[in-house]
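Design request, tokens follow.
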């Protein structure tokens, strides 16, 4: 009997999808910038902003078109075209992405209220569900068997899918505070999902269902990288809600799609952590801004001001205040995202307890190093002050 050949990942086709997304997004971003200026989708100068000139937004339109162009191009490829024949999930992502991107464009131009944006997010998540993107099962630890898979009924799967989509769309929107921050963090997060889902595809050998998550992830990574040259400091265009909400929806769809194809006998308890790497990254990056926002509400309330009034004490203002430049602050965020994503996805490749312990220890060490790098400008400033002659010295000498 002839041995069964191992499944070969269509690396060239994924590379072509990635490259197409990069080129299409990069080219279209310049055109979208001109369109944004013409229709008046421009970010005004506010006291709390870090930019000093009006910047066009609505760049998410180029991100969506780059993603859609790369995914549709895959329909013509020999291996990846099987993903379209297996189910309608990818088509659902394109339709839901168009819906959420349209809502974002309206917000970029007319500043929709929070209720209208939430309704649009729920509508787009509902479109995903209608096209078959739905969370199906969860792995839960068990003291007797070591763990078991719990299958969700339709109502539970719909609620969980919509909830995850709304969380990620708002999380991605919330961290879009510095030039290039969202595009870079989203690219790192999508790359983590691509690595995990291709590992899953290789082990399963199923080039139909299991090939959909890495296809979505490859297109999203390319779209974010293609947009980044226009958006990195100094930004010529902002992604806007159209891009932030679409990226969150695409990440949610790829995560849910990968969950439905999990081989629990292969990944075991590590599958849940590795699969949720994008969500872990997003929530970890969002945690500090959310905490900072809550502290701002408390601070403003104590001062007798409106809790949602603007000020210059948010996270990115604090990062700049301790001595980071905009580029440095964004690169620090990239480092945090890469450590968290790499640590989570590495669990899918480790098979021994010793390897997992080593990976966790390495991740902790890297996180400590990243924390030190985050506050290094303030530490350096204090060291300079301690070395100065004292309080009686001229301010110019202390500053030097």
């Amino acid at each position: 009997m002839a041995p069964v050949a191992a499944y070969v990942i269509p690396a060239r086709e994924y590379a072509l999808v990635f490259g197409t997304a990069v080129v299409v997004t990069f080219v279209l971003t310049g055109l979208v910038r001109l369109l944004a200026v013409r229709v008046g989708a421009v970010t005004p100068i506010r006291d709390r902003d870090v930019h000093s000139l009006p910047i066009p937004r609505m760049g998410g339109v180029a991100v969506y078109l780059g993603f859609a162009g790369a995914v549709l191009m895959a329909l013509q490829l020999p291996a990846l075209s099987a993903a379209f024949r297996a189910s309608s999930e990818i088509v659902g992502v394109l339709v839901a992405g168009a819906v959420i991107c349209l809502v974002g464009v309206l917000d970029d131009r007319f500043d929709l209220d929070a209720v209208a944006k939430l309704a649009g997010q729920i509508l787009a998540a509902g479109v995903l569900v209608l096209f078959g993107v739905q969370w199906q099962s969860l792995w839960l630890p068990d003291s007797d068997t070591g763990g078991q898979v719990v299958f969700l009924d339709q109502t539970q799967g719909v609620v969980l899918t919509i909830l995850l989509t709304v969380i990620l769309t708002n999380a991605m929107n919330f961290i879009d505070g510095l030039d290039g921050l969202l595009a870079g963090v989203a690219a790192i997060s999508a790359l983590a999902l691509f690595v995990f889902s291709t590992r899953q595809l290789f082990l399963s050998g199923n080039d139909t269902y299991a090939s959909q998550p890495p296809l979505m992830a490859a297109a999203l990574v390319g779209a974010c990288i293609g947009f980044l040259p226009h958006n990195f400091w100094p930004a010529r265009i902002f992604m806007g809600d159209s891009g932030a909400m679409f990226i969150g929806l695409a990440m949610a769809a790829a995560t849910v799609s990968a969950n439905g194809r999990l081989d629990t006998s292969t990944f075991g308890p590590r599958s849940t952590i590795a699969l949720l790497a994008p969500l872990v990254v997003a929530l970890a990056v969002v945690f500090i801004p959310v905490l900072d926002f809550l502290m701002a509400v408390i601070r403003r309330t104590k001062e007798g001001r409106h809790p949602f009034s603007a000020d210059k004490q948010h996270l990115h203002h604090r990062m700049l205040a301790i001595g980071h430049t905009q580029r440095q602050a964004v690169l620090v965020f990239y480092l945090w995202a890469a450590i968290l994503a790499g640590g989570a996805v590495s669990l899918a490749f480790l098979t021994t307890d010793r390897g997992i312990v080593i990976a966790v220890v390495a991740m902790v060490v890297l996180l400590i190093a990243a924390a030190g790098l985050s506050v290094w400008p303030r530490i350096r400033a204090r060291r300079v002050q301690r070395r100065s002659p004292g309080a009686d010295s001229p301010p110019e000498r202390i500053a030097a």
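Comment from the thread starter after seeing the answer: thanks! The two ends are 78 Å apart (CA to CA).
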